[in-house]
Design goal:
This protein has a single domain, classed as Sortase (Sortase, Chain: A, Beta Barrel), CATH 2.40.260. Helices cover about 20% and strands about 30% of the residues. Strands 1-2-3-4-7-8-6-5 form an eight-stranded mixed barrel. A hairpin with a 4-residue loop joins strand 1 (about 90-95) and strand 2 (about 100-105). It has one helix spanning about 1-50; strands spanning about 90-95, 100-105, 120, 135-140, 160-165, 165-180, 205-215, 220-235. It is built from one helix and eight strands, in the order αββββββββ. GO terms for molecular function: hydrolase activity.
Length: about 240
């Protein structure tokens, strides 16, 4: 009986160890490689596109059919206006030079369709890159590519680049909120201001960037927020 219990305990421990290895190493490796391929796919497509065209977003490098969000089939706004990215569709590249981060940006913050693939997710109904308002994004801090692993190291003046088909928008890091609650939606408002810590944030309209991730590491109890302001925009 004791021998059987010992064997069961060893087996259980081995299974747990394998799960930890898969979560911390293999998921990172898979997601990181997939995100890198998606960045390359976007860049190749942008190079092929003729100036002045307005094609559909670049396809994901996946075996699944691209996900299509609600709205017109061509992805345009009702009535008129520029094309919008579809749900889960990668359409931009985020770079943080000081951290060596390069990651695709996709529409939406679904775990399976976006974040767990190593992508940075754009919060729906927040501004698009370079536009007035708040371009708000989320990313994993640990596992699944962990693009936002080290954003706690960012300091005022560090830059974050958002590259789209037509332009590169450079944001300068301005403020950091080290801890807030997951439900603090004020941090991604058009004028970002924490509803939990009202002294943190802004009081006037502008061109903002918000990056959110979990904190502390290996926990989802709180959120870390990094804010920036648009510093420049240049054609790609």
């Amino acid at each position: 009986m004791l021998w059987a219990a010992a064997e069961a305990a060893v087996t259980f421990g081995a299974v747990v160890l394998l799960l930890v290895v898969h979560q911390l190493w293999w998921s990172n490796r898979q997601a990181g490689q997939g995100a890198e391929r998606q960045v390359q796919a976007l860049e190749r497509r942008w190079e092929r596109e003729a100036p002045g065209t307005d094609p559909a977003p670049a396809p994901e490098e996946t075996d699944q059919e691209p996900a299509v969000g609600p709205g017109p089939a061509d992805g345009t706004r009702p009535g008129s206006g520029p094309a919008l990215p579809r749900r889960d569709q990668a359409y931009a590249v985020l770079r943080i030079p000081s951290l060596g981060v390069v990651a695709p940006v996709a529409e939406g913050v679904a775990k399976r369709g976006v974040l767990d693939k190593g992508y940075v997710g754009h919060y729906p109904r927040t501004a698009q890159p370079g536009r007035p308002g708040n371009f708000a994004v989320a990313g994993h801090r640990n596992t699944h590519g962990e693009p936002f692993r080290r954003i706690d190291r960012l300091r005022p003046g560090d830059t974050v680049e958002i590259e789209t088909r037509d332009a590169v928008h450079v944001y300068a890091v301005d403020k950091v909120l080290t801890k807030t609650l997951p439900g603090d939606t004020g941090v991604i408002g058009s004028v970002p201001r924490s509803a939990v810590r009202p002294a943190a944030g802004y009081g006037a309209a502008g061109h903002y960037l918000t990056m959110t991730t979990c904190t502390p590491e290996f926990s989802s109890k709180y959120r870390l927020v990094v804010w920036g302001r648009l510093a420049s925009t240049r054609p790609r």
